[in-house]
Amino acid sequence: MTRIPSDVRDTIEKAIYLPMTISILNRDIAIVQQSPFKLKDPYLRLIEQALKLAQRDLYDVKNDLRRRKVKIHEVSRDEAFTMYCFIYEGYEEEHNYFNPRIRNQVAALLEHYLFAADPGQ
């Protein structure tokens, strides 16, 4: 039984997924810059705009967790699961996340940010 409310748990999960999403977007920028595309700029602007949106959301999530005094750290990782420890209101909880689920959530965030990005701004 978890003592962490669902809204705080959602914020914690964003704090897990958003850094991975940002890492992938940064890697994609490097790949596009080195690719043989004739016109790289539209792709780079799209990815950079998505990256800015993700970074802004991560900033907000970190501030929210800091305000609520929530701490998160990775405990262990293997081929199938990653275990995280959450400290909330003095209680420590460990949660296992299935790695394919993490990958799917990050993929959904990538789609969200890429489709939300407006390179015309």
Largest sheet entry = 3 strands, antiparallel
Helix coverage percent of residues?
A: 55-70%
* Structural classification: alpha+beta
Task: Give the averaged pLDDT, no decimals.
Answer: 94
Could you tell me the strand content as a percent range? 15-25%
The span between the termini is 46 Å
Low-confidence stretches: none
What would the principal axes of the Cα set say about the shape?
elongated
Order of helical and strand elements: HHEEEH
Number of strands: 3
Question: Can you offer a commentary on this structure?
Answer:
This is YhjD. InterPro entries: YhjD-like. The chain has a 3-stranded antiparallel β-sheet. It has one domain (6-116). It has helices spanning 6-34, 41-68, 99-116; strands spanning 71-77, 81-88, 91-98. Helices cover 62% and strands 19% of the residues. The chain is elongated. The protein has 121 residues and is of the alpha+beta class. 13% of the residues are buried. The mean pLDDT is 94. Helix 1 runs antiparallel to helix 2. The protein contains 3 helices and 3 strands; from the N terminus they run ααβββα.
